[in-house]
């Protein structure tokens, strides 16, 4: 009979509904599933922290270090539950499913309605880490209740199942859960799988080791957890709409999730739109000209037949470049095709960028700017004298920081840009807020000089941010200092410092004059921080 156990079963062994070998396999399967779910929770917290707070390296370090510490604490606390391992594991998995499954929704709610999610992030990292850390000791106790033979082999099997499960969870998150279900629904589904695996294992395999009261408590706990997660999954669309309105206001016109980020356009039909990327105001339609005119036009003094724009997928820098009729070709290198698609099709954004992408002189390359410059340099070297260098390069990129954008502000990146420039060519760089982060700004300047450029620092300003409390412009930060629209800019030329002025044939500009440029240069010099080393790929120096 399948329910009969050998008379030689070790003391403390439980009566199982299957043979010990099958029971052992079911426990290892639970280890596999729980490990996969645990890593999904971990990656979910890292992804949300990077999205909601920014500075992906810092946030990943905080989440991972806190969770690893908490896992050690959980392993120690699990010793108190080993005498009642089955009940303890069942309740632990129910709690982990509820916390992990709801973590994304709670963090996003904190971000949307409170404006701060760091405390919740650390709290979830601690709690989830403690619960994950307690899993293996309890599972070890359960599998030893089935059979005490080959303890070393049991440990190896448990850790093998745990590591393989982590691999599957780590791959499932970016390739399946995130693109197919999104962060919120993906976390909720993971929690449901976690609850079914943990609760099902205990309530079925170890049911004869439980009292009637324990079975009832576990059953009610898992039913409640599944009901909460299912209800949240049903309401997730309404929640997203409400949270989006809390973040962006009531006039959200377009909200799309691209492969790289969330892109949102807001604004009433009678005013220029505001463009948000990952919750940060990238373009304020009412005064974006202050930034884009200051960025582009000083670099257009001199030859300008070939222009390269790195970033700037919204088409606003392109608009300013195309105001010079002698520009023969403009190449835009943008990493996110969704931004370019919106800049080509949304009526408000198309009107704001002056139908820039309809101009036959404009060519778009969907690529990472660093990789594109590297490939273009290799291709140019192979082509020899036939390569057409650029007269102007406009680096319209996000704020420098210890993130994926750090390499776009490195000495190596500027070296690649120098290879693409022709003789006398100019490079203009957006280098972040000068007043709020002067060391970051002057580190960009030091990196340019280390790459062989002469530089002219200057600053542009706009009015205070008025949209949902977020900093406008290309700065992906919510610091109060950044809310002043303080844009630190650098005009550079290989071998010598260029003259900071406007072209003699500059079109009529709304916010930039020779006087404002001179004033911006004086303000920039007054903030100078000397002696800073350059930022490199191997040693990024942009503090959070």
Automatic annotation (TrEMBL):
Enzyme class, first EC level, given as a word: transferase
Domain of life assignment: Bacteria
Subcellular localization(s) per the UniProt record: Cell membrane
EC number: 2.5.1.16
Membrane topology of this protein: Multi-pass membrane protein
Any Pfam family: Spermine_synth
Catalytic activity: S-adenosyl 3-(methylsulfanyl)propylamine + putrescine = S-methyl-5'-thioadenosine + spermidine + H(+)
UniProt keyword annotations, A-Z: Cell membrane, Membrane, Polyamine biosynthesis, Spermidine biosynthesis, Transferase, Transmembrane, Transmembrane helix
GO MF, one example: spermidine synthase activity
Domain PABS, residue spans: 233-475
Principal place of residence: membrane
Annotated positions binding spermidine: 292, 314
Transmembrane segments: 25-53, 59-78, 90-114, 120-143, 155-178, 184-205, 217-236
Active site: residue positions: 396 (proton acceptor)
Pathway the protein contributes to: Amine and polyamine biosynthesis; spermidine biosynthesis; spermidine from putrescine: step 1/1
Quaternary structure, from the entry: Homodimer or homotetramer.
PANTHER family xrefs: THERMOSPERMINE SYNTHASE ACAULIS5
Protein family per UniProt: Belongs to the spermidine/spermine synthase family.
NCBIfam families: PRK03612.1
Protein name: Polyamine aminopropyltransferase
Organism (species): Streptomyces chengmaiensis
């Amino acid at each position: 009979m399948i329910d009969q156990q050998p008379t030689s079963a070790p003391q403390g062994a439980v009566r199982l509904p299957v043979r010990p070998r099958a029971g052992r396999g079911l426990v290892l399967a639970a280890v596999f599933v729980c490990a996969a779910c645990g890593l999904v929770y971990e990656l979910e917290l890292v992804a949300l922290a990077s999205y909601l707070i920014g500075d992906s390296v810092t946030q990943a370090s905080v989440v991972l270090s806190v969770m690893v510490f908490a896992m050690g604490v959980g392993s120690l606390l699990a010793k108190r539950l080993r005498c009642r391992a089955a009940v303890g594991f069942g309740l632990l998995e129910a709690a982990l499913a509820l916390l992990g499954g709801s973590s994304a929704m709670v963090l996003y709610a904190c971000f949307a309605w409170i404006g701060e999610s760091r405390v919740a992030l650390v709290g979830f990292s601690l709690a989830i880490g403690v619960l994950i850390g307690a899993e293996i000791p309890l599972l070890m106790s359960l599998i030893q209740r089935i059979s005490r033979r080959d303890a070393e082999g049991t440990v190896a099997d448990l850790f093998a199942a745990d590591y393989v499960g982590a691999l599957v969870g780590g791959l499932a998150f970016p390739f399946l859960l995130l693109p197919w279900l999104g962060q919120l629904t993906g976390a909720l589904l993971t929690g449901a799988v976690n609850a079914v695996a943990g609760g099902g294992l205990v309530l079925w395999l170890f049911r004869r080791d439980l009292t009637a009261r324990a079975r009832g408590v576990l059953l009610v706990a898992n039913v409640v957890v599944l009901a909460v997660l299912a209800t949240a999954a049903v309401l997730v669309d309404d929640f997203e709409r409400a949270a989006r309105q809390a973040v962006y206001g009531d006039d959200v016109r377009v909200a799309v999730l691209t492969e790289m980020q969330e892109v949102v356009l807001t604004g009433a039909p009678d005013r220029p739109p505001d463009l948000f990327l990952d919750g940060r105001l990238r373009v304020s339609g009412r005064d974006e000209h202050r930034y884009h005119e200051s960025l582009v036009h000083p670099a257009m003094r001199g030859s300008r037949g070939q222009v390269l724009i790195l970033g700037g997928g919204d088409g606003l820098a392109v608009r300013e470049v195309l105001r010079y009729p002698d520009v023969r070709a403009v190449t835009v290198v943008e990493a996110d095709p969704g931004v370019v698609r919106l800049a080509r099709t949304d009526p408000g954004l198309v009107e704001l960028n002056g139908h820039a992408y309809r101009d036959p002189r404009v060519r778009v390359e969907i690529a990472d700017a660093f990789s594109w410059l590297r490939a273009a340099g290799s291709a140019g070297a192979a082509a020899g004298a036939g390569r057409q260098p650029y007269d102007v390069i406009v680096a319209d990129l996000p704020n420098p920081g210890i993130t994926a954008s750090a390499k776009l502000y490195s000495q190596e990146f500027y070296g690649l840009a120098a290879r693409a420039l022709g003789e006398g060519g100019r490079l203009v760089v957006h280098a972040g807020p000068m007043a709020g982060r002067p060391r970051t700004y002057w580190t960009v300047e030091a990196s340019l000089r280390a790459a062989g450029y002469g530089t002219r620092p200057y600053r542009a300003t706009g009015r205070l941010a008025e949209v949902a409390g977020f900093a406008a412009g290309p700065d992906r930060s919510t610091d109060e200092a950044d809310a002043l629209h303080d844009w630190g800019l650098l005009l550079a030329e290989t071998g010598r410092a260029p003259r900071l002025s406007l072209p003699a044939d500059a079109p009529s500009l709304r916010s930039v004059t020779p006087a404002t440029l001179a004033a911006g240069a004086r303000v920039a010099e007054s903030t100078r921080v000397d002696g800073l080393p350059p930022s490199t790929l191997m040693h990024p120096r942009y503090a959070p």
